[in-house]
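Task 17 of the worksheet. Students: predict the tertiary structure of the chain below and write it out as structure tokens. Keep your answer in the requested format; marks are given for formatting as well as content.
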Amino acid sequence: MKDLHPTKLKNHIEHIKSKKAFIIDMDGVIYHGNKLLPGVIDFINWLKESKKNFLFLTNSSERAPRELQEKLSRLGVKVEKENFYTSALATAMFLDNQYPGGSAFVIGEAGLLNALYNIGYTMNNIDPDYVIVGESRSYSYEKIEQAVNLVLKGARLIGTNPDLTGPIENGIAPACKALIAPIEMATGKKAYFIGKPNPLMMRNALRKLKSSREDTIIIGDRMDTDIIAGIESDIETALVLSGISSRETILQFPYQPHHVLNGVIDLVS
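Model answer:
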């Protein structure tokens, strides 16, 4: 994919900036690990000054909105915790609608555990209703073994998101779909994934923004989650090349983003 002519790029940028609401991925768009990406502070200041509605939508289930707010604050970005929506919160909402007051065996971190506790779920390693897997630093063979046997006994298998990898400061790290794969293979059961590109999460985001599809744009770095999420939810998309995707990898997909930017810095430079 060739770079756009400067005039065409300017037209794309003006169109993006005309939107009333922004759904913005975090890893690869706002930061890599603990490194803020170029142009982010100016971009967020522009969102505020222009009175745009915006929501940071992340497939990562590790952190609660308060933790994400504090992380951005440490990096020099001030936003409210209401500006965050995670796959952990979307998973909790799904479970609360499907099976209120249930129990779960969880492989995941505080963001996922807190979201489940907040809907009245209990943790159960004997006969849970669900086995739920998110990103986890405490992933172990023992937990995989427990999860496999609980699923074989009838627990339903849920993944917080279908990401295979996520960007970190020095490369990539395995994400939820990679972590849940051994459980699927050992049990013969397929997980149901809640996060992007599941339209459930996108509809929840639009409700939180109080915005229509037509007035909203998704900014993300992944063709296989962010961009397909927009296409399947009929929301316009802008792919940034500051994370997972490159101009070469875009061509490997049978669908394309509406806009391609080097990063959010293009919107404010």
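Marker's comment: The longest strand covers residues 53-58. Residues 4 and 260 are 9 Å apart (CA to CA).
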